[in-house]
Design goal:
It contains 4 helices and no strands. It has a domain of 33 residues. The protein is rod-shaped. The protein is mainly alpha-helical. Helix 2 runs antiparallel to helix 3.
Length: 111
């Protein structure tokens, strides 16, 4: 029987959450429509002007959605790191409690 194990490196999970937050903030601050308004100004009433307006709206929505999703993913990673830390702490406390409980009366008298 093969036994599989894994290790969660909390520092790496936290670092990835920080990176994702930074990316979300960068995208949120970006202006995906920069320059598109000049198409409408240069070619008023044209198909290109209408397409530029449509593209501007689509890019704005996509950038906003991506930034929101990335921020949510970063929060999930942060919560995951906290859960691993809490689980490790709880397991450590249980091991310590079991260690003391397993000493029994003979061990207590020997001290």
């Amino acid at each position: 029987m093969t036994m599989f194990t894994f290790e969660a490196v909390v520092a790496d999970i936290t670092a990835s959450a920080t990176g994702m937050t930074s990316a979300a903030d960068t995208v949120k601050a970006a202006d995906p429509t920069a320059g598109l308004s000049s198409v409408s100004t240069a070619l008023p009433g044209s198909a290109s002007a209408a397409a530029a307006t449509t593209l501007s709206t689509a890019w704005t929505e996509r950038f906003t959605t991506w930034a929101t999703d990335a921020a949510s993913h970063a929060t999930a990673r942060t919560n995951s790191a906290s859960s691993y830390t809490r689980a490790d702490h709880d397991a450590s406390m249980r091991m310590q409690a079991n260690s003391v409980a397993n000493r029994g009366p003979a061990m207590a008298q020997a001290q």
